From TrEMBL:
Signal peptide span: 1-23
Record's protein name: WG repeat-containing protein
Alphabetized Pfam families for the sequence: WG_beta_rep
Taxonomic lineage: Bacteria, Bacillati, Bacillota, Bacilli, Bacillales
Keywords from the UniProt entry: Signal
PANTHER family, per database record: DUF3298 DOMAIN-CONTAINING PROTEIN, GLR2918 PROTEIN
Length: 673
């Protein structure tokens, strides 16, 4: 047997002969003697010798003799799964068998418990104690092994039950279904009937309901014999099942149906409004609901009061929350008015047409389709602009477009003409957004499009065939030149950022809409959302990396069959001269290679770190390099810390790196950097 001194001497001689440059930086701490190894973790490493896996410490001392078929990494409880003759067990860091290898499977620990399989499924704790003997066909772990109330779903003979963390069956596996617990309560199903249980497994209701809905305001709708009632959290029927349909309780009331009629009840079951409406559409945040009876519409509140008589031809809830009401006369003419979201009448139905409330204003018309005139009312129904315009549109950015004698102008919320009607308006010319958004609106003239600001100043003359709003206040513009569309870019001041000479400008990408690809003559470029041209359209392809729907990392570019990388400011990091490039957003380096050639490594500043190796793979901050079939290690700056003289090598972990020589693995240590 070699002594420690002779081992050290042999190691030093070997290193001095094989790789003199390495001798000053590394030395074998544990001699090459193993068939396979894993990296050190908390002072121990799994090694394979004579066909079996064992465990050593950082001095090379055997903690566990090589008697297992496999040893996994230690978990947060200090336990490692071991395999022997296809059976699984657990050991601790001292090598003690916490669980003898007798199981076909051991799952990961969750909340101190792990699933075991020995023909049937059971549970063990971190001490190795069998908490639930293997007797179940399945133990649920898809939604998490232990649910919010500390219970575990089990299955036996296609039936479900629940056990607690102590292994006690709180619900025998006799049920077809168990729901998730919400507020300490769950629903179980048996023979097509349901019941409510608590987290102790106690039945709060008999197994008698066709279905049980979720609780709302302390009550849950239940169905029995095709009738619906309500139970409380104790399982008591506070409202017997007698309705054909019912909603959840909101604001202490619920809508109920009986004999095809809808009414309103409170939480004690009192019918505030007996079922008499043909239907109700549900209450808004202010406690107002649209109702229908005999083909007429009205509004009720949660007290059941008809705050708008059931007399209207139609009532429509607008996005603003206002209710648009319609009256149809005997000669089939229609008139319109408004109730606010609280159910107060703010505008009598005296208008022949109305728009939607937006920014507290709504366009209204008096008169017919041909000779009618448009004005505006505010949220209180007050006429702010008398009907005098031929057309009017919704307010945006504090201004509303109005049309008179085919001229476009804009009014403000005080009813003043902020921009007098002066611009051409052609109804047949679609695609012109005359609404102000971000302080800019579109105008047209002779089927050409331009831009104005909120003072009415023309910031872009109508010279383009098309203008589209894109990201960050930018406008994509296009013109037909010699029969072909040319695309460019304007900013919100109307300044030309890119002349309309591109084949196309794509939409901005991702949630942050930070970049857009441009195209010209079959080539691609890149702009940012300020309109800055980061990359000229000279590339055959551009590929971006996304994380959480945002552009991250680097942008891959391609010319012909060669690739490179640029950063998010457009700076070239890796020249476009390689057959392949690789980068991941969580790394601070990029690799590139040529077919049959060496691998280059660049840092994030575009500095070439190395180009001397066949392959480079960074692991935990260390670069595993190979050249001529030999492996070594470099730092992220390219400094060689282990010369490539080994058959294989792993990254440093806890000061040691596994290295392979003459078919055997050992561990080297860094003497200095």
């Amino acid at each position: 047997m070699k002594t420690a001194a002779s081992i050290a001497l042999t190691s030093a001689l070997f290193l001095s002969m094989a790789a003199p440059a390495q001798a000053a930086t590394t030395s074998f701490a544990i001699q090459p003697q193993y068939e396979e190894v894993r990296s050190f973790d908390s002072g121990t490493a799994a090694v394979k010798s004579d066909g079996g896996w064992g465990l050593i410490d950082k001095t090379g001392k055997l903690i566990v003799s090589p008697r297992y078929d496999d040893i996994e990494r230690f978990n947060e409880h200090g336990l490692a799964e071991v395999v022997k003759d296809e059976k699984h067990g657990l050991i601790d860091r001292t090598g003690k068998e916490i669980v003898v290898p007798v199981y076909s499977y051991i799952g990961d620990f969750e909340n101190g418990l792990a699933i075991i399989l020995d023909n049937k499924y059971g549970l063990i704790d971190v001490t190795g104690k069998v908490v639930v003997a293997p007797k179940y066909d399945r133990i649920e772990d898809k939604r998490g092994l232990v649910n919010d109330v500390g219970l575990i779903e089990v299955e036996l003979n296609d039936k479900y039950g629940l056990v607690n963390k102590a292994g006690v069956e709180v619900l025998k596996p006799e049920f077809d279904y168990t729901s998730d617990f919400v507020g300490g309560l769950a629903v179980v199903k048996q023979n097509a009937k349901m019941a409510l249980i608590d987290k102790s497994g106690k039945f709060l209701t008999p197994v008698a309901y066709d279905w049980i809905d979720n609780f709302s305001e302390g009550l849950a709708a239940v169905s029995k014999n095709k009738k619906i009632g309500y139970i409380n959290a104790s399982g008591k029927e506070v409202i017997p099942p007698k309705y054909d349909d019912a909603t959840k309780f909101v604001g202490s009331t619920a809508l109920v149906d009986r004999a095809d009629k809808t009414g309103l009840i409170n939480k004690s079951g009192k019918e505030i409004v007996p079922p008499k409406y043909d239907y109700a559409l549900g209450f808004n945040d202010s406690g107002v609901s649209i109702v229908n009876k005999g083909g007429k519409y009205g509004l009720i509140n949660r007290t059941g009061k008809e705050i708008a008589a059931v007399q209207y031809y139609n009532i429509e809830k607008q996005e603003s929350g206002f209710f648009k009401v319609t009256v149809r006369s005997s000669d089939n003419n229609y008139s319109y008015g408004f109730y606010n979201k609280s159910g107060m009448l703010v505008a009598k139905p005296v208008y022949s047409s109305v728009g939607a409330f937006n920014e507290g204003m709504a366009a209204v018309r008096k008169g017919g389709d041909k000779d009618g005139k448009w004005g505006f009312i505010d949220a209180a129904g007050k006429v702010i602009v008398q009907p005098k315009y031929d057309e009017a549109f919704d307010f945006r950015d504090g201004l509303a477009p109005v049309i008179t004698k085919n001229k476009l102008g804009y009014i403000n919320k005080q009813g003043k003409e902020a921009i007098k009607p002066q611009f051409e308006y052609d109804r047949s010319f679609s695609g012109v957004d005359i609404q102000f958004r971000g302080g800019v609106a579109m105008i047209s003239k002779s089927h050409k499009v331009g831009l104005i600001d909120k003072t009415g100043k023309v910031i872009t003359k109508p010279a383009y065939d098309r203008i589209d709003r894109i990201a960050n206040g930018l406008f994509r513009v296009s013109s037909v030149i010699s029969g072909n569309w040319g695309w460019g870019l304007l900013n919100a001041k109307g300044q030309v950022l890119i002349k309309p000479e591109l084949s196309y400008v794509q939409e901005f990408m991702g949630k942050d809409q930070r970049f857009a690809i441009t195209e010209k003559a079959g080539k691609k470029g890149l702009i940012d959302n300020t309109g800055k041209q980061l990359l000229l359209p000279i590339y055959d392809d551009i590929d971006v990396e996304f994380k959480d729907e945002k552009v991250v990392g680097f942008i891959q570019v391609k010319k012909g069959n060669q690739f490179g990388l640029v950063n998010l400011t457009g700076k070239v990091i890796v020249p476009v001269v390689y057959d392949s490039v690789n980068h991941w957003s969580f790394d601070d380096y990029a690799t590139a290679g040529t077919n049959g050639g060496k691998t280059a490594v660049y840092n994030l500043n575009g500095v070439l770190i190395t180009k001397d190796y066949d392959s480079v793979n960074f692991v935990d901050g260390w670069g595993i390099v190979t050249t001529g079939g030999k492996s070594g290690i470099i730092t992220k700056t390219g400094k060689v810390v282990v010369e490539p003289v080994y058959e294989d090598i792993q990254s440093f972990s806890e000061g040691l790196a596994a290295a392979k020589i003459d078919g055997k693995w050992g561990y080297i240590t860094l003497l200095k950097l």
